[in-house]
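Good morning,

Both structures are done.
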Amino acid sequence: MEARRSWASDLPFERRPTPYNSDETTYPMRWARASVAYARTAVLLDAVLAAGVTFAVLSWSTGVTLATAAWAVVGAVAFVSFVAGAKGYQRSALGDGPREFQSVLRGTLHLAGALMVLGFLLKAPVPRSLVVVGVPVLAVLSWWVRHVHRRRLHRQRSQGQAMMRTVVVGDSASALRVTRNLGGATHHGYQIEGMCLPEAEPGGDVGGVPVLGAIADVVQVVADRAAEVVIVTGSSLSGDALRRLSWALGRAGAHLVVAPDIVEVASPRLTVRPTAGLSLLQVEIEAPRERLLAKSVMDRTISVLALLVAAPVILGAAAAVVLTSKGGAFYRQTRVGVDGRTFTMWKLRTMVADADRVRETLLDASDRDGLMFKMHADPRITPVGRFLRRFSIDELPQLLNIIKGDMSLVGPRPPLLEEVQAYPDAVRRRLRVRPGLTGLWQVSGRADLAWEESVRLDLRYVDNWSVTMDLMILWKTGRAVLSGSGAY
């Protein structure tokens, strides 16, 4: 048997070509080209959008002139520059996670600030319509275009394209957990080639995942598989050994990613603090007050504006409810809010008048597992109510609950008192934040999700919420509502 070449040695390392067929050998280049193309397309789209919005706003207010065209060019250059300054075109931030959208938001805010400085402080002839109309429109359009652009990339990844070949290193339990999580979420772009385990021989498998070798073989496996990413998990590698591996992978042309054993915790709760030669990972326990204030201001501002717009829809739906079935237009129910406090939640009535009494006779017919009661063909729902539920129109009166402070725009759905009384201890953490009009599991399948999965998504939101996450969930809520999937 050929002796193993350990990455811990000081021998020079040369990357060898993968022994697979020609299609496979070009795979890493396909990923590199795809990521560069994605970044270039993002720059082009932002420039075209900024130029188009600037030209349209100024043409509407001042007419088409040479100055209008010049402002359009300036707007394109300025917007792309501000987004680039917010790291919106870094390949590591594109196609996955919220950083891409956060960069666009920061770029538009910086652009608005720069226009106001030019106009109000330096007395430059900056049209106010650019700040009042142009920047908000540009932010919305840029978010939408980025979303469409990202969806195209995710479709490619679901077909096995534009992926990063990945080797997972660690003990079998930790490596298998990471492998299964990443394998079930191809949109993140990791194609798992296999695992390297302590003192393992290649040729076997763990849970259906190939074992490519021992930890000492990692760099050679990277060369043989033309891998681009190595993910280290568990406690098999740490300290100087992990440091030496990073050096060896640098020579091999692969990236090192460390997956800590803390689960369902993500930015902005995690902060790396370099201290005394150590990289300390600090986990935020409670959300800072300024973030809570920002969420509260956003909730009430958007809810007031949405209620003004939705008032005719609510009144029309209320009239339809009263005219087509016995009972009042609105339905009030006691729900459990933040920290276990109860409140009265408002909805448009979608069921027959004695629905609560009939519910006890239908509990055994629930289509949901766990504590939540749902039925695809609930006999209590009226024809008008079914339409209102499909497009979530019945939930619009809860905008009043948000304005009062009982609820939030985004959060776990408010549970019934009897559901809370049956909660296990871990599930009670759902009550640490205000319940929401929409939430993470609502945009991930709504009532079609299993109880355990909906709880997992709710807890993920409670642990990791941010204003940016709320904006992204609100963005996805529109698509979920229009599609009507999982609504019954």
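Second structure follows.
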Amino acid sequence: MDGLSRRGRRRVLLVLCVTEITSWGVLYYAFPVLAPSIAADTGWSVPAVTAAFSAGLLVSAAVGIPVGRLLDRHGPRWVMTAGSAVAVPAVALIATAGSYPAFVAAWLLAGVAQAATLYPPAFAALTRWWGPDRVRALTGLTLVAGLASTVFAPLSAALLEPFGWRGSYLVLAAILAAVCVPAHLFGLRGRWPDPVADPAPAGAAVAPPDDDPSRILRSRAFVLTTVTVTLGAFTSFAVAVNQVPLLLDRDLSTGLAAWALGLGGLGQVLGRLGYPLLARRSGVRGRTSWLMAALAATTVLLAALPGPAWALVAAAVLAGAARGMFTLLQATALADRWRPRVYGRLNGIASAPVMVAVAVSPWAGSALAGPLGGYPQVFVLLGAAALLAAGLALGTVPQRHPPR
């Protein structure tokens, strides 16, 4: 394989598995556990605290565009090392913020780090270095990284009692410094190969070779695919971040709510393991609609269950499984419908509203809880959004191709 030996490719995959768990755990999944304590300690409202987190995600979406160009030209080693190096002081500044503007500024800096350390640069690294065998590597990475919440949600809760939220974030910053900076610097070595065009995946509902990308962008199938994935991403991430406050309202302790979020990460792994079987036994349109309906059902289940605790934890695992399958559905949505030769342009445009939805969803969930009367009502609304996506998914296959 051009660029890296087989041993080198395995090293890169191992490094990214470890660093993605750590980066996602510290920069994303610790926040839902620590947010209620941040609000209680500082006097800032939960929506205000969550808005700072969402602002960082918006920065991540914007910075991701130039980061992508740097990755294409220079590879992931220095980009991801720099991202990790920025993440450490960003998390430390979150921990030590003495005012709300300082807290927001720290999260904006963390957003820069997220753009250079989370899935997009890792996916780019595996796609280029693993070449035609990239699907196996990407599947392995998402399976392992799906455990980020399983590891870091309970860890954050365990740190909270002895250290408080500020001390917890300082410990997490130290973990980032110890794990991600050296791993990216020394583990992502190797010549960055030139991109290679691959054939369309077997059995995919792809458009013919002479299809004009501009015509695809204007097509009903592309618009509905983008809207469907955007609604799914909004629901998925809003559920993940707002699940802990929902469970706290159900009288679960912070520790148990954190464990429920963590076990939801295990559910994500199980969902991703089951996705290949679903892909083999279903068509593009039916699979998309079914998964959106499953996301809606598990979200409403969390809203409707008053208890007991074990039932709420089980519902969190089911919701995690639906989110895990949605992640792979999102990753393959365009390639299942159009040829890879136009994938870059289509993905750049389709990703923009999805990233905005991911950024806004945590804040929107907490902001709507007051006007709607609580988190259960928010989850019902999120379930309705996913159900709408299930209906729209029926029109997402290009019209020239017979429904599968």
